[in-house]
Amino acid sequence: MNLSITLTVNGRERMLALPDPRVTLLDLLRDRLDLTGTKKGCDRGHCGACTILVDGRRTNSCLALAISHDGADILTIEGVAHGDTLDPVQAAFIAHDGFQCGYCTPGQIMSAIGLIREGQAGTDPERVREGMSGNLCRCGAYAGITEAVLEAQRALDAAEQEQAA
Amino acid sequence: MDGMGAALRQDSALRHATGEAGFIDDLPEVPGLLHGALVLSPVAHGRIEALDPAPALALPGVVAVFGPGDAPGRNDISASGAAQEPLFAEHLVEHWGQAMALVVATDRDAALAGAAAITPVIHALPPVLELAEAVAARSLLMPPQVLARGDVVAGMAQAPLTASGSFRCGGQEHFYLEGQIAIATPGEDGDLLVLSSTQHPTEVQHIIARVLGCAQNRITVQCRRMGGAFGGKESNASWVAAAAALAAHATGRPVKLRLTRKADMAATGKRHPFLFRWTAGFDATGRIAALEALLAADGGHSLDMTPGVVFRAITHALNAYDVPALRIEALGCKTNTVSNTAFRGFGGPQGVLLMEEIFRSIAAATGLDVETVRAKNMAGGENGDETPYGQALDGKLIRRVHAEALAASGWVERRAAIAAFNAEHPTLRKGLGSFALAFGISFGVMHMNQAGALVHVYEDGSIRLNHGGTEMGQGLFIKVAQVVASAFGVPVERIRITATSTGEVPNTSPTAASTGSDLNGWAAHLAASAIRERMAGVAAEIWAVEAGEIGFEDGMVRAGGNRQMSFGELAHACIRRRVSLSATGFYKTPDIHWDPVAMRGKPFFYFSYGASVAEVVVDRLTGEHRCLGAWLVQDCGRSLNPAVDRGQIEGAFIQGMGWMTSEELYWDRTGRLRSLGPSTYKIPGSRDVPPVFVTRILEGSPARAETIFRSKAVGEPPLMLATAVWNALCDATGAVSLDLPASPERLLAAIRAGGR
């Protein structure tokens, strides 16, 4: 069986042969495309370190079979910044110390971007904590993470208002 | 400001946020790399009768299988080299999940399939799984430690009241998000370069050399960063790396061994569960006169670092409190479970539980408030201020820190509000608890209190820093870089931070016991100061002034009013004058000593003090609970980096709260660990953070000991501040005794047993 899929990864179209149909998006990204920013924490869909956006939705890439995402648009941590300009979420994570060891950080940031795009972040820290609860941080940097998400949402709101005005 | 005291982001902040920070598994794989997978014991205790590698070798991609007989040196991964700690089980398996063999294959899936294909033949033996059973049978890994002072028998006899009790606390899985990993790459003539996610590169080096039977100078171990460690990569990283090294040595190919989450949780040690038994004699005011206690640690099947954990537990059993007469015996017990190891706090978190539980019993017996009993027994003031092993505590600072935590929480008003809330709610109960901590800083093993650093200044004035400490997210690298930047008077960007390597700074101690910045900060400061002194000499010669007149600041070197040149210009001038701009720094903690026979001495350079208040709410119908508020005050001396320290305080509290509430390791009756992933083992998530979370670094309190810039260690102490959550849960439920973790099931049982 000769399987192949097409993915748009960080804006670039990729044709990929799948010698093994069981390969996950996570292993495909890390092993085949050298996009190692996305991390493997538990490989069971429970820690969130492998979070990416698939067609704009937050997805645990360790549980997503590549073959079932033919044609998908994928955004990983490597595609988030615009050249040297950080995404507001990235900047907010740095400004608010939203990490310590950094291993869960790409997943946290992708999850935060997804949460904001879903219109679910808002201004209530309880809501942010709920919306980010699928991403574990063993260093316990949650206070900074929550502040970072709130700050990024504020920054995006302000930018939007500026554009509207 | 870039030097000491600046709240700088940690060195890899930008790279973490962009995904560019490389962890070992992220590095490009070189052609020919083999992947490893472990064969783990399927039983808790048994005699090995056969381990046939043939089914694995028959699979495509499998290259080789290695077992205990394949080590060219010794099959021994103990730190001392003298204990019974095999790399691969030999003759006996002593816990479920013990490493028995390593399969290497051309890809990861093939290695895992190979490991799964091997079925060891084991004659099962009855396992000892319960700590209480090990205590009863005196199944010990080490001689008991006894700490005694005064006449306990007389003290107990004369006390108007006595109480006794027993309780236990569970273990804790480190759950570093980056699992254990090493890549071993053979070089020329038997050299081996090992990338290891380790807190202790030197021990990785030494153990690999022992397993391979080669000189230590053949092995270079490097670690740029770890994705969390928490003590779990202090000794456990060594055997993972040794297995990879053995296979690399035998095959001549690079070998990567990364444990799956399940294998990691099955095969690597955890925090020690403890069993406590105690009897206290006291009076109607709550003052304790005498205490007898047993602290039993579950060391698992082998020694590992259990003596150190037991030492820290026993030296912290009185915590910040004074008891005139006492006898505490501490045991390191052997069970057929995974060998327990270092975990942030290292016996301290278990030790400091004792007095809290005793205070509750005394309060119940006397009708006093727990806080009254606490205050009555605090070290200093009217009470003694010397630990039972003879080191002085700062009673004033303990009181100040505790009072600040109470004040931050608005304790009195909060108490009243909670009473009003509880009167109105039939199902929900709120509770409030406080805690105070005196945590000793230094390695309990005296010779480990040493560190080295290597600093180079290049001709363009750029600086390269290397030291023995490792970065696991705790911000050590930026702190030490700040120390060096401050010594040279240059911006911290001028300092190039580099991976820890046994080839650059040898014979180091692990980055552990909260000592990372204390030890490596000093070593780096000494190295930088040596170079600066030489540079000042050259500047003095150029300008014909005294060396003492030369100042280094803002990237410039100056003398008097109008003589100045850039740091880089001076570096260039030094090279032209044949002056060395490279130096090592070596530091050993002064003024510490310990007599292990008498159990007396000054084992700690200083104490780190902290205090906390926690408010919780418990559902009386389900036992579910939440921490609503936490107010923490932590003594950091004169903080080297308040941003880093605040992160440590918050994170440690959350991790401690996890240990005390939601994190439960579950072994079944045959000794299989059934909590093998985040679906069955609950570490704190974003929703577990208290909605009110106030952390304060104690102000105006530089360390009295001569620490680096009068700062204090911060890695472990705040983990224990979560003890206030335990106390608050007892307050909410009326439980006098409450085993940990305080799961909803345990709280429900406590409520049904007659609590409120």
UniProtKB/TrEMBL annotation, chain A:
It holds the Pfam family Fer2. InterPro entries: 2Fe-2S-bd (IPR002888), 2Fe-2S-bd_dom_sf (IPR036884), 2Fe-2S_ferredoxin-like_sf (IPR036010), 2Fe-2S_ferredoxin-type (IPR001041), 2Fe2S_fd_BS (IPR006058), Aldehyde_Oxdr_Iron-Sulfur (IPR052914), Beta-grasp_dom_sf (IPR012675). The keyword Metal-binding applies. Residues 3-80 form the 2Fe-2S ferredoxin-type domain. Keywords: 2Fe-2S, Iron, Iron-sulfur, Metal-binding, Oxidoreductase. One of its GO terms (molecular function) is 2 iron, 2 sulfur cluster binding. The keyword Protein biosynthesis does not apply. Gene3D superfamilies: 3.10.20.30, [2Fe-2S]-binding domain. This is Xanthine dehydrogenase YagT iron-sulfur-binding subunit. It comes from Humitalea rosea.
TrEMBL record, chain B:
Its cofactor is Mo-molybdopterin cytosine dinucleotide. Keywords: Molybdenum, Oxidoreductase. It comes from the Bacteria. One of its GO terms (molecular function) is iron ion binding. Residues 18-126 form the Aldehyde oxidase/xanthine dehydrogenase a/b hammerhead domain. Gene3D superfamilies: Aldehyde oxidase/xanthine dehydrogenase, a/b hammerhead, Aldehyde oxidase/xanthine dehydrogenase, molybdopterin binding domain. PANTHER family: ALDEHYDE OXIDASE 1-RELATED, XANTHINE DEHYDROGENASE. This is Xanthine dehydrogenase molybdenum binding subunit apoprotein. It comes from Humitalea rosea.
